[in-house]
Amino acid sequence: MSFKDTIFAIETKDTGDAVSIEATAYTDRNEITIGDKIKFGIHVKYRNDLTVEFPKINQQLGAFTVKETGGIAGDKREKDGYFTVEQNYVLSSYEIGRQTIPSLKIRYKSSRGTGEVVTNEITIDVRGVLKEGETAADIKDIFPPMNVPTNFRRLVTWIFAGLAALSLSAVIYWLINKRKNGYKKQSQEFIVRAPHEVAYELLENLLKEDLISKGLIKEYYYRLTDIVRHYIEKRFGLLAPERTTEEFLDEMAHTNKLDDTHKRLIQEFLERCDMVKYARYGPSRSEIQETYDAAKRFIDETRERFEEKEVVAH
Predict the structure, then answer these.
(1) Domain 190-313: which topology?
(2) Residue 231 in 3-state DSSP?
């Protein structure tokens, strides 16, 4: 454990008895690359008969996203007579530069009343993913739309006209053939494939294409994201394919169609994919496998909970 900055302490006197408590915020490192996870903890040390209440932190802590909230460890009595208790978190940031984890208020209660103590702030340097010697100018913009020559447009028009004529001929042929042979009306039952069945097939086809071995890592992540987004749309009715990641996560936060576990799972999955697709992050083999496993796990777990068979009779 590496403690940062200053330990903040409060001592109050009430009915002649002293209440002594101090709280320290710390991280396992003070420099990360964008998207990396860091361990953040709050260590509280106190005397006397106190009850310590840690702050409730939602999804955001300054410029940092709270990925995990650990359990509270303690209370332990130290040799100097103090008690200690700890709360741990896992954080991540997608904002480059010097970012600050703000101070937090720790409330405590004793038989003589209540009070609070404030932790220290911690500064973290968040680096980008550009390699040494590269600049933002090295990231090429997309090419502007090409001007299509008039002759080519004319050719396309003729092609479409020909296709339309062929289609019309095929329809006429079908109608004539139908009248010759007679038409038998049959009642047929069509089974609509469940979203998870389609998703499993697409995942299997993606692996067979072996894009990773071919060096098409970004293409692989685009395809994997697209499979999961379309599964979410078909299964839960959320417009995942048409939304940006930020827009979709905002909508997902307000829906009751997914529980908190699956919301966190899909949020981490989309953020991992965006790092590769837009931030030029080069994932390792194990990270690629973890991302694929997260997609399949999400489909596996939600399939059992929301599965329905749809049968349409004609």
Answers:
(1) Four Helix Bundle (Hemerythrin (Met), subunit A) (1.20.120)
(2) helix
